[in-house]
Design a protein that fits this description.
Blueprint (H helix, E strand, L loop, with lengths): L23 E6 L4 E4 L1 H7 L3 H4 L4 H4 L10 H5 L10 E8 L5 E11 L5 E11 H39 L5 H33 L6 E4 L1 H14 L7 E5 L6 E4 H18 L4 E7 L3 E7 L31 H11 L3 E6 L5 E8 L7
Parallel strand pairs: 7-9
Antiparallel strand pairs: 1-2, 1-5, 3-4, 4-5, 6-8, 9-10, 10-12, 11-12
GO cellular component, one term: plasma membrane
Pfam families: HATPase_c, HisKA, PAS_4
Enzyme class: transferase
């Protein structure tokens, strides 16, 4: 009976307007007449909806491959096997020279073996793809450069020890083995950073929340720096009263604080101050130094991959601040950089109190 509850779970279908799609979309009929164009396609091609709808595809969107061949004619919706439904993505050009990545789906009626009723064409920005490829090339280049030095050292010292072990004193052997150990640690840190970058970019970063005492974690990071040889009076920790109970990933909080404090020590001067205060809905942590600071026009760049600034004491891979930003945002927080009151750089991140993660 109509309207009766038969105990089955009902589902609703959500129809998303094509203008809300992130990629460009052009829909034609089986003859190549344009039926619809979304906002992203207009932005990528510069062809307005009014100019495109009702016109032939090859007239308003004359895509060409690298050899100048007409993509639509090569597509030939009516040709080929009647089971054909997908056309793989490939880079194409418009007359203005802009590059777009184009793929297509042939919609048949009936679905199996029928005539082509519509063609759905998707477009993606070729410039964005090129930037991504350049970023990956930069990553490979950076990794190769950063790995070469410690691995060359490890290989050199181990080969020397194996070939001439009896000729060295115990003290000389100890120095060489300590160098090998330090270089192995450097390689391990680089691999860890690369894994973090991969997880951040792919959205696979997992948080294991627990109650975290942020001031205690900061004291632990400072103690590690002091044990490594930094003077204790180089650091100043300020913790406000009534800090909220923070449900965070403790290891990632250590990583955030460690990277920011190391950045302040390496690139700044004077006292490094870690200031932790309640902001009502969470906590705000500032790490500031008394060095040269960061110019305002450079502030948007500091959280990009491979950014190292103009400091002579660069070091590192340039991935640390990118990872810090990803870890803070994974907690639902934000991070900014500005000039500190003492003239140096001040990195300030805020994180909400969070909730226990029982997943």
């Amino acid at each position: 009976m109509h309207g009766a509850d038969d105990g089955r779970e009902r589902t609703s279908v959500c129809v998303i307007p094509i203008d809300e799609l992130p990629d460009g979309l052009i829909v034609t009929d089986g003859f190549g007449r344009v039926l619809a164009v979304n906002r992203a396609a207009v932005r990528l091609t510069g062809v307005s909806v009014e100019r495109a709808v009702g016109k032939d595809m090859d007239e308003v969107f004359p895509f060409r491959d690298h050899d100048g061949r007409d993509w639509w004619k090569a597509l030939d919706p009516d040709g080929g096997l009647r089971t054909r439904s997908r056309v793989p993505e490939r880079p194409l050009h418009l007359p203005g020279g802009q590059e777009v990545y184009v793929a297509a789906r042939l919609i048949r009626e009936p679905a199996r073996g029928g005539d082509v009723a519509r063609v759905a064409i998707t477009l993606r920005d070729g410039g964005a793809r090129a930037r991504l490829e350049r970023s990956r090339a930069d990553l490979v280049s950076t990794v190769a450069h950063e790995l070469r030095s410690p691995l060359t050292s490890v290989k050199g010292f181990t080969a020397t020890l194996l070939a001439r072990w009896p000729r060295f004193t115990d003290e000389q052997k100890l120095v060489m083995l300590e160098t090998v150990n330090n270089d192995a640690d450097r390689v391990t840190r680089l691999i860890t950073e690369l894994l973090d970058v991969s997880r951040i970019e792919s959205g696979r970063l997992e948080l294991h929340r627990q109650v975290v005492d942020v001031p205690a974690r900061a004291r632990r990071v400072i103690a590690g720096r002091v044990a490594a040889g930094e003077p204790e009076d180089r650091f100043r920790l300020v913790a406000g009263p009534d800090l909220p109970e923070m449900w965070l990933d403790q290891d990632k909080v250590d990583q955030i604080l460690g990277n920011l404090i190391e950045n302040a020590v390496r690139h700044g001067r004077g006292t490094v101050t870690i200031d932790i205060q309640s902001v009502g809905w969470g906590a705000a942590v500032s790490v500031r130094d008394e060095g040269e600071g960061i110019e305002p026009e450079l502030a948007p760049r500091v959280f990009r991959q491979f950014w190292r600034g103009n400091s002579r004491r660069r070091g590192g891979t340039g991935l640390g601040l990118f990872i810090v930003k990803g870890l803070v945002e994974a907690h639902g927080g934000t991070i900014t950089v500005q000039r500190a009151p003492e003239g140096g750089a001040e990195f300030r991140f805020t994180v909400p109190t969070g909730t226990p993660d029982f997943a």
